[in-house]
Design goal:
about 130 residues, two-stranded antiparallel ribbon, about 15% helix
């Protein structure tokens, strides 16, 4: 990993996410990882956002930045940061928002490319950042 940071491995459920990105003609797919007792651990316990977000997750999204990535039309002008920039700007203005980071992803030993790893804004997200159940 970059900067000699240690990575991690955890068993989890995995599902493709997105709309058109699920089609076989696309070379890269978005994923959602689920952390449940039936897969091993009930939660992912890891400082995924380097001290700037939750450290425990029921699930996370791996966004493939479909319309702005190299594989969509084989563009050399890939722009991976637009959506994360918008989320970071919302957070900088003091509003609730999903945290995100970028990582190289391997699934079962196969390299899948760079993904934008994000909080998924639903009940467990609200509980983590706003309190309550």
């Amino acid at each position: 990993m970059a900067d000699h940071e240690s990575g991690f491995q955890i068993d989890c459920g995995i599902r493709m996410r997105g709309g058109t990105t699920r089609r076989p003609r696309y070379q890269k797919h978005g994923f959602r990882f689920f952390f449940r007792q039936q897969y091993g651990h009930g939660k992912l316990e890891y400082d995924l956002f380097h001290g700037k977000g939750a450290k425990e997750f029921d699930h996370i999204d791996l966004r493939c930045t479909q319309p702005c990535s190299w594989h969509h039309g084989h563009s050399f002008n890939a722009l991976y940061v637009r959506d994360q920039f918008a989320r970071d700007t919302q957070l900088a203005m003091g509003q609730p928002g999903a945290r995100g980071t970028f990582a190289h992803i391997y699934i079962n030993g196969h390299y899948w490319d760079v993904f934008n790893i994000c909080d998924r804004s639903e009940a467990s997200f609200g509980s983590s950042y706003l309190g309550g159940r």
